[in-house]
Amino acid sequence: TNELGALKCTKRAVLEPLVVALAPFAPHIAEELWERLHPEKYASAAYKGVLEEPWPVHDPQYLVEDSFS
């Protein structure tokens, strides 16, 4: 099954890294999504936006392929 579909894609733990990874490819859309996730950050004039966020760290457990026999 699709993990995002099963989660209904509403968990911040899924959405935040996805938006950060999207930012270099679609910066305007990523900024809009990030602002909806973190409106408090945009209250500060010093905040630069989603492109200043740290890159997501991979989880090695998801790199293991399932095997079927």
Descriptive account of the structure:
- The chain is mainly α.
- It has one domain (3-52).
- It is 39% helix and 0% strand.
- It contains three helices and no strands.
- The protein has helices at 3-7, 12-22, 27-37.
- Helix 2 runs antiparallel to helix 3.
- The chain starts with a helix and ends in a 32-residue tail after the last helix.
Unreliable stretches covering 5 or more consecutive residues:
none
Helix content: 25-40%
Please give the radius of gyration in angstroms. Answer: 15 Å
Which range does the strand content fall in?
Answer: under 5%
N-to-C SSE series? HHH
- End-to-end separation in angstroms reads 18 Å
Looking at the structure, what is the overall shape?
elongated
Number of strands: 0
The tally of helices reads 3
Classify the oligomer: single chain
Main sheet record: none
Average predicted confidence as pLDDT: 84
SS-based structural class? mainly alpha
Number of domains: 1
Any key phrases for this structure?
69 residues, mainly alpha, 0% strand
